[in-house]
DNA sequence: GCACGAAATGTGACCGTGCACATCGAGGTC
DNA sequence: GACCTCGATGTGCACGGTCACATTTCGTGC
């Protein structure tokens, strides 16, 4: 009865139309919830779609609309918790919006590989790009490529406001720094992330602002690469000098490396040095000692990225421009200075 | 001169054809490296393509070939190192093969969300699916959905050989277990992963095989969920009993939780209990104590997944059926038993 | 010099959808 | 009742490739 359309090929709107006794255009209207469709007609069409297990052909739709309903994510260091969580959040938010996510990995930060990765996404004709990578360079490359799709990243308050989502990384940096100052620390280092990551730059800015606001003499931040290995090496160096009592690390992995180095050098956390991380990775409460850190809401972040990208400004208009507030999680890696 | 085709719209093969003085079909042949194209013709066409910055339209190609040159990845717990690394590796291998990767996240393990995630990928008409999730359930869902695309996962030697890539997880489990036995341990627990993850099942099998091969009495494995939190809770429980001197954990995160619990209960690693993990996450060397664990080559794994999926059997034919050998990394969380 | 097959290239249809425009009928206005 | 409006639906084409088949070009043997 209903299998006249089954010649090995998936049913299309014309098959549905024929079975429902309407034109293919009416079926198309039902698909796109066009307002002027009689309820009875819509129901009949939907019933047929369900019956024949109709699934719209994305390629055909993309061809005619030249919009793929796909969001591209340009990712770097994606096996790390922060980037991985962001991607996951973007994926979830996109799925809710009916969008697919394609990712493109950045093997290194050379100009060529950035261009290659962006082109890889463009060949899919993505409708927008989220950058989770060294944003400054990537943005430059994107602008040079004359990309016509919107692109965003995660940050707050900076030079790239047009392309940024408001997570208040600066506030997070201040939160962490203030916590250390309130504990009585006056000699505080900051282990920052790579400076062409906007998050890293914003957290560092938070550190500097809070230090100067509280009139604590500031030392130059150390520029790291997000990895625990780097944290370890930096920690070994720092313990040679030992002119500080606390370190604010720009992410939890580097904080872990720091703790390791401090212990290897025969000192204790938090007795000799207090450590604050950033991200609150799921392992942070199980570090030794459990890590004081700053938590951010990745899911909300992902939703806002996608919303911004799709120009879906009606979503979350209230407080949309406002930032997501990061939260300080106090555990056992911080305490008052020993001297 | 060359901008007659620029009416705001990207150039297509007919534009290229006109400028090169050939038919659109010839351009198509050049694109698909058809053998019977004269070199001079090919060069002329390629020159024009380059000049007008031609980029083939993926949607149009997908429409007519009903192949999207996209690989779908069904992921779960993707913010964890293992899954995240696998996805990254798959992404890299796919890019080399000219394929794009779309991911679909599994918010939970319910039947409905599995079906939804699979359909999400199918709507993209992916050419194949890699499952990094509770494979057993997902495979069942895929089979029920009568999916026509190939799908694979990561494992070795099991019931699903048709759909698996040969990483010898069993060997990895044996390696870890043998290390503990050789150190003199006789009372060894295994903290396994969720049993519908094939990796988890294989590592557990490795544990059981090695234990019985070496004539060590075996205890029933504890079934975990991959998280450090679970490791911690399990550790607290286990330390109540304390009828063991070593634990082999199915991943590094749970091992971290175990160490935390052991220390919280007033015991020491490795003095009182030896711990072996699995994965060698980048943080493992910086745990306290640095974690003895098993490393696997994710990149090679990703390449093989993609190769298998694309039926690209000429790639790596030598040793293709053979397994990737995991490697034991001995650090400081293991030592001889105290008694 | 011509027949012949293979190599090289061209022609037209088709994939499944959305868009612009045409059509049709019902109801309101005068 | 002629006219207009507007809601509901239908018609034909365009999107940018590939495929099957037709046609032209070219080298070769006799």
List the topology elements.
The structure is a homodimer of 339-residue chains.
Chain A: H1 13-20, H2 24-31, H3 39-52, H4 58-65, E1 70-75, H5 81-96, E2 100-105, H6 111-122, E3 128-132, H7 135-144, E4 151-155, E5 164-166, H8 169-182, E6 188-192, H9 198-213, E7 222-223, H10 228-241, E8 246-249, H11 252-264, E9 274-276, E10 293-295, H12 298-309, E11 327-329
Parallel strand pairs in A: 1-2, 1-3, 3-4, 4-5, 6-7, 6-8, 8-9
Antiparallel strand pairs in A: 10-11
Helix pairs in contact in A: 1-2, 1-3, 5-12, 6-7, 8-9, 10-11
Chain B binds a DNA duplex (30 and 30 nucleotides) through helix 2 and helix 4.
The proportion of residues in beta strands of chain A is 5-15%
> Rg of chain A, please?
25 Å
The overall pLDDT average of chain A reads: 87
Report the total helices of chain A.
Answer: 12
Structural class of chain A: alpha/beta
Query: Reading side by side through the largest sheet of chain A, how are the strands ordered?
Result: 2-1-3-4-5
Please mark out the parts of chain A with pLDDT under 50 across 5 or more consecutive residues, or reply none: 1-7, 156-160, 313-320
Describe the structure.
- The structure is a homodimer of 339-residue chains.
- Chain A is of the alpha/beta class.
- Helix content of chain A is 43%, strand content 13%.
- Chain A contains 12 helices and 11 strands.
- The first copy, chain A, has helices at 13-20, 24-31, 39-52, 58-65, 81-96, 111-122, 135-144, 169-182, 198-213, 228-241, 252-264, 298-309, and strands at 70-75, 100-105, 128-132, 151-155, 164-166, 188-192, 222-223, 246-249, 274-276, 293-295, 327-329.
- Chain A has a 5-stranded parallel beta sheet with strand order 2-1-3-4-5, with helices on both faces. A 4-stranded parallel beta sheet of chain A has the order 7-6-8-9, sandwiched between helices.
- In chain A, α10 crosses α11.
- Chain A is elongated.
- The termini of chain A are far apart.
- The model of chain A is unreliable at 1-7, 156-160 and 313-320 (pLDDT under 50).
- Chains A and B meet through α4, α5, β2, α10 and α11 of A and α4, α5, β2, α6 and α10 of B.
- Chain B binds a DNA duplex (30 and 30 nucleotides) through residues 12-14, 22-26, 28-29, 31-32, 35-38, 41, 56-66.
């Amino acid at each position: 009865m209903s299998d006249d359309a089954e010649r090995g090929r998936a049913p299309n709107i014309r098959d549905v139309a024929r079975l429902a006794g309407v034109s293919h255009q009416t079926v198309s209207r039902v698909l796109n919830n066009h307002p002027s469709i009689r309820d009875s007609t819509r129901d009949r069409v939907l019933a047929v779609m369900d019956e024949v297990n109709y699934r719209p052909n994305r390629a055909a739709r993309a061809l005619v609309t030249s919009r793929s309903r796909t969001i591209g994510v340009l990712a770097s260091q994606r096996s790390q918790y922060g980037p991985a969580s962001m991607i996951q959040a973007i994926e979830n938010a996109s799925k809710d919006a009916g969008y697919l996510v394609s990712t493109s990995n950045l093997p290194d930060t050379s100009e060529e590989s950035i261009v290659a990765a962006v082109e890889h996404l463009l060949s899919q004709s993505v409708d927008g790009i989220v950058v989770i990578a060294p944003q400054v360079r990537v943005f430059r490359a994107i602008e040079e490529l004359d990309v016509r799709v919107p692109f965003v990243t995660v940050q707050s308050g900076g030079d790239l406001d047009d392309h940024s989502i408001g997570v208040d990384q600066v506030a997070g940096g201040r939160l962490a720094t203030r916590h250390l100052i309130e504990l009585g620390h006056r000699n505080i280092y900051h282990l920052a992330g790579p400076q062409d990551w906007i998050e890293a730059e914003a957290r560092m800015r938070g550190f500097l602002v809070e230090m100067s606001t509280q009139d604590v003499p500031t030392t130059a931040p150390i520029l790291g690469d997000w990895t625990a290995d780097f944290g370890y090496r930096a920690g070994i160096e720092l313990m040679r000098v030992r002119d500080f009592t606390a370190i604010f690390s720009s992410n939890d992995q580097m904080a872990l490396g720091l703790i390791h180095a401090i212990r290897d050098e025969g000192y204790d956390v938090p007795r000799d040095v207090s450590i604050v991380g950033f991200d609150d990775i799921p392992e942070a409460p199980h570090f030794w000692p459990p890590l004081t850190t700053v938590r951010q809401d990745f899911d909300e972040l992902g939703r806002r990225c996608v919303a911004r990208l799709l120009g879906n400004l009606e979503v979350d208009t209230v407080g949309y421009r406002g930032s997501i507030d990061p939260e300080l999680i106090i555990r056992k890696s911080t305490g008052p200075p020993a001297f």
